[in-house]
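Whiteboard transcription, Tuesday session. T.W. wrote the C-alpha cells on the left side:
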C-alpha cells in the first residue's frame, strides 16, 4: 500500500515508517500537526507531540517526500476513550490534514502512526482512517518496549530527548542526549520506578535526527535552549527548544527520477512542504457503498423463519434462519437481510438493540459470497449503533442448503446491560490480526471473554501463514494468546472451551497432527506458567472439533476460545459437588451407568460457569438404543441406518444427561446462555424435522420434571455441519451438544 506517515519527529513515528517498508509498503508522503503559534513548543494535548516541531519541516528534504503540515486549531473536547466526530476537537485537525493529503495524492490507501500502548491515540487515528476510507498501520502496537527500544537503536534510529518529565530524568543532564546513550539508564529507571522505557507514559519525548529513511541528509542540531516547565524536586519537567540546526547532505543521495516514486505527485514537489488550511465545512467523508437494508415487515413475515432463544434473563442467545427452501432460491444478500432484520425486530421486542449484542455467529452457505455477506452485515451492525463497542464475530461456511435452510444463519448472544468491555483494534500491527470493520477481537462480559474466531493470519501482513494446517493452528493460538493477554489472562490457564473449526480441505491423514499440535502448544505454555509459579486457578478446558466446508480466506483452521477472566484473585478450579445433596431423577427409564461419564467433557467454575460438550458417537448410540426394549440395535458404522425412533431415543438421552450434569453442579436450565446441537448432514434429516423432534422431547421432559420452561421458541440452536466430535480424528458424532451455563 502507499502510505502517508503521521510524523511528530519522535523515534516511534520514524521507526514505524521503517516497519511499513519492511512489510512491503511505500511511504509517499508525511503529515504533521504543529502548534498554531510558532513560538510555542508544547501543547496541552494527549494526542500530539509537538516539541521539536521547528525541525520536522526538514524531514521532507531528508527523505525526499512531500510533507503536509497543519496548525492545530482545535482542543480536547471529546474526552471519552473512544472517539466520535466532534466539531472543534483537535482530532478534526488530523482529519482535515489527511483528507487534503488524500485529495492531492489519490493513490494513498493507508496511514502509519507510532502508537505503542495508547488506546486513546490509536482509537482516534482509527476513527479518522475509517471516515476517510484509509487503513491504519500501527506496527509498534503492543510490542515489548524494552525490545522495541533496542530494535530502534540497532536499526539506525538516531534520536535525542527533547522533553523529560519523570523521576530520575534531569532536564539539565538528560535533555539533548541520544537514546542509545540513555538506554541502559532508562532500563535502570524501569527497575527502580517502573517507568516505560519507550516513554509511553509521558516520561520523555524524542526528536529523530537521522535514520535509514533519511536518504538525502541528516539533521545536525547546532544550538538549543533548555526550558524548565517545572522545578519539582522529584520529577522536574523540561523541554529542549531548538535555536539553530542545519542539514548535512549524504554522499549516497538517492535520485528522485525513478518513475515509481512520483505517485501522481509532481517531481518538483517531492520534497516540498505544504501547509493545509481550511476547516471541516468543505470536507466530504468517505461513503460506504450503499446496501438497501429496508425491508417491509410483511417481507419478513412472508418467510418461514426458525427462531430459538434461551431463557436466561440477563444473557441469552437468539438464532434465526430461513426454513422454507422453496423461497430461498434468491441470493445470499436477500436471505441475510431477512435474517438480520428479524433478529433486529426480536431485539426491539425485548427492549434491546444491536448495542446489547456481545457476540455474533454468522453462518453462510458459500464462502465465495463472504464479501457480499460482509457488505450486508455492516449495514445493520455499525459502530454508531453500538455505543459500547461492536460485537465480536466468527464467520463459518456450513452445509445450510443440504439441511433444508436458506443461505444465511445468524446467532447472537445478548446482554441486558452495558457492562461489556470490547477490544476492537482496526490497525494492522504485529500484535494480532486487525478487525477493520464493525466486529471486534474480543468482548468481555461478567468475567467471560468471548473471543472472535482466530485464523492463522500473520498479523503484520494479514496473510495466512504457510506450512499447512498445523502452522495455521499455532498462529491462530498465538493470535488468541495476544488477545487474551490484553485482558490479563491466558489461553493456557483461563480457557473454558475451545471450538476448533476444521476445513474439509485438510487431508484426513493430517487431522491427528492438529490435535497433537494444540495439546503440545498448550502444555508447553502451561509449563512456562508452572516454572514461574502461576499455576493457581488453572482451568482444564474442553474441546470441540467441527468439520466445515470452508472458512474465510480459505483457511484450514479457525480457533474460537471462550475464557474465564476472573475479576478477583480467587481460585478458579473444577468443583466436585456433594452428590448426596442433589441428584437427578430418572427420565425415560435412563439410569446412571459408568459409560455415561465417557460421553461428555465438562469445565466447571464453582458457582459461576458450567460448560459441557456431549458427544454421541456411533458406539454410544448402540448402547443408548439397545437399552430401550423393542428398539433395534444401530449399525455402528452407518449413521444413515438410524431410524427416527432411534434418533429420538438419542435426543432424550442427551437431555437427560445434560440435565444430570447441570443438577450435580448446582445449575439449572434457566442458567443456560446457549445450547447448540450440531448434527451432520450424513444423518439425512432436515433441520426442521430434527428441531421438531427435540422440541417434543423438551416438552416431555418439562412435563416429567418441571425443570425447564417451554415457550414459543425452543431453547436450543440446531447447527448443521459436515461432522463434529471431541477429537480432530473422529469428527463423526451423530449428535454433539455444546451447553454453556452461567450463574447470574
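and on the right, the sequence the group agreed on:
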Amino acid at each position: 500500500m502507499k502510505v502517508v506517515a503521521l510524523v511528530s519527529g519522535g523515534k516511534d513515528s520514524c521507526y514505524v515508517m521503517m516497519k511499513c517498508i519492511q512489510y512491503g509498503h511505500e511511504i509517499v508522503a508525511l503529515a504533521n500537526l504543529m502548534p498554531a503559534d510558532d513560538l510555542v513548543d508544547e501543547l496541552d494535548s494527549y494526542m500530539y507531540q509537538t516539541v521539536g516541531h521547528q525541525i520536522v519541516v526538514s524531514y521532507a528534504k531528508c527523505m525526499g517526500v512531500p510533507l503536509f503540515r497543519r496548525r492545530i486549531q482545535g482542543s480536547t473536547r471529546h474526552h471519552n476513550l473512544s472517539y466520535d466526530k466532534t466539531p472543534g476537537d483537535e482530532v478534526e485537525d488530523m482529519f482535515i490534514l489527511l483528507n487534503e493529503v488524500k485529495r492531492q495524492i489519490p493513490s494513498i490507501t493507508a496511514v502509519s502512526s507510532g502508537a505503542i500502548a495508547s488506546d486513546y491515540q490509536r482509537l482516534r487515528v482509527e476513527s479518522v482512517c475509517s471516515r476517510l476510507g484509509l487503513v491504519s498501520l500501527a506496527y509498534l502496537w503492543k510490542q515489548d518496549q524494552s525490545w522495541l527500544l533496542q530494535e530502534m537503536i540497532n536499526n539506525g534510529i538516531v534520536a535525542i530527548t527533547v522533553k523529560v518529565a519523570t523521576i530520575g530524568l534531569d532536564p539539565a543532564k538528560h535533555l539533548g542526549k541520544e537514546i542509545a546513550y540513555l538506554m541502559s539508564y532508562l532500563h535502570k529507571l524501569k527497575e527502580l520506578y517502573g517507568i516505560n522505557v519507550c516513554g509511553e507514559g509521558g516520561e520523555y519525548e524524542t526528536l529523530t535526527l537521522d535514520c535509514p529513511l533519511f536518504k538525502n541528509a541528516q539533521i545536525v542540531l547546532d544550538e538549543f535552549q533548555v526550558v524548565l516547565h517545572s522545578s519539582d524536586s522529584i520529577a522536574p519537567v523540561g523541554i529542549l527548544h531548538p535555536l539553530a540546526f542545519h542539514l548535512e547532505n549524504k554522499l549516497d543521495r538517492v535520485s528522485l527520477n525513478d518513475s515509481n516514486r512520483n505517485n501522481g505527485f509532481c517531481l518538483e514537489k517531492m520534497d516540498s512542504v505544504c501547509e493545509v488550511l481550511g476547516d471541516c465545512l468543505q470536507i466530504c467523508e468517505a461513503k460506504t457503498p450503499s446496501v438497501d437494508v429496508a425491508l417491509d415487515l410483511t417481507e419478513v413475515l412472508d418467510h418461514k423463519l426458525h427462531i430459538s432463544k434461551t431463557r436466561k434473563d440477563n444473557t441469552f442467545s437468539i438464532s434465526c434462519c430461513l426454513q422454507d427452501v422453496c423461497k430461498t432460491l434468491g441470493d445470499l444478500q436477500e436471505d441475510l437481510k431477512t435474517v438480520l432484520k428479524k433478529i433486529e425486530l426480536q431485539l426491539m421486542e425485548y427492549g434491546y438493540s444491536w448495542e446489547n449484542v456481545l457476540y455474533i455467529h454468522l453462518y453462510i452457505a458459500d464462502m465465495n459470497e463472504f464479501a457480499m455477506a460482509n457488505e450486508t452485515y455492516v449495514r445493520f451492525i455499525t459502530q454508531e449503533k453500538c455505543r459500547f463497542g461492536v460485537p465480536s464475530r466468527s464467520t463459518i461456511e456450513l452445509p445450510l442448503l443440504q439441511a433444508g435452510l436458506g443461505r444465511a444463519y445468524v446467532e447472537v448472544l445478548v446482554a441486558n446491560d452495558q457492562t461489556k468491555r470490547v477490544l476492537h483494534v482496526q490497525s494492522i500491527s504485529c500484535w494480532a490480526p486487525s478487525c477493520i470493520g464493525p466486529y471486534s477481537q474480543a468482548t468481555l462480559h461478567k468475567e467471560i471473554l468471548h473471543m472472535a474466531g482466530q485464523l492463522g493470519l500473520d498479523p503484520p501482513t494479514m496473510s495466512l501463514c504457510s506450512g499447512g494446517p498445523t502452522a495455521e493452528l499455532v498462529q491462530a493460538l498465538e493470535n488468541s494468546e495476544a488477545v487474551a493477554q490484553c485482558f490479563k489472562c491466558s489461553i493456557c490457564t483461563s480457557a473454558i472451551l475451545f471450538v476448533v473449526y476444521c476445513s474439509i480441505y485438510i487431508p484426513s491423514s493430517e487431522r491427528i497432527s492438529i490435535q497433537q499440535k494444540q495439546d503440545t502448544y498448550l502444555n508447553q505454555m502451561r509449563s512456562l506458567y508452572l516454572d514461574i509459579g502461576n499455576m493457581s486457578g488453572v482451568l482444564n478446558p474442553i474441546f470441540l472439533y467441527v468439520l466445515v466446508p470452508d472458512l474465510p480466506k480459505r483457511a484450514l483452521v479457525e480457533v474460537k476460545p471462550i475464557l474465564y477472566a476472573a475479576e478477583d484473585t480467587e481460585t478458579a478450579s473444577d468443583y466436585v459437588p456433594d452428590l448426596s445433596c442433589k441428584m437427578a431423577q430418572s427420565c425415560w427409564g435412563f439410569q446412571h451407568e459408568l459409560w455415561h461419564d465417557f460421553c461428555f467433557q465438562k469445565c466447571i467454575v464453582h458457582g459461576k460457569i458450567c460448560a459441557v460438550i456431549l458427544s454421541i458417537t456411533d458406539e454410544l448410540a448402540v448402547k443408548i438404543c439397545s437399552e430401550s426394549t423393542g428398539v433395534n440395535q444401530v449399525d455402528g458404522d452407518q449413521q444413515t441406518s438410524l431410524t427416527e425412533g432411534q434418533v429420538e431415543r438419542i435426543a432424550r438421552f442427551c437431555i437427560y444427561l445434560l440435565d444430570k450434569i447441570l443438577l450435580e453442579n448446582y445449575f439449572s436450565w434457566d442458567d443456560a446462555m446457549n445450547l447448540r446441537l450440531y448434527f451432520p448432514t450424513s444423518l439425512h434429516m432436515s433441520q426442521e424435522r430434527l428441531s421438531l423432534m427435540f422440541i417434543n422431547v423438551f416438552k416431555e421432559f418439562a412435563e416429567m420434571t418441571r425443570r425447564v420452561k417451554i415457550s414459543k421458541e425452543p431453547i436450543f440452536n440446531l447447527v448443521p455441519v459436515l461432522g463434529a466430535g471431541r477429537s480432530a480424528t473422529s469428527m463423526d458424532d451423530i449428535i454433539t451438544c455444546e451447553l454453556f451455563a452461567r450463574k447470574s
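Someone added at the bottom: The first strand starts at residue 2 and ends at 6.
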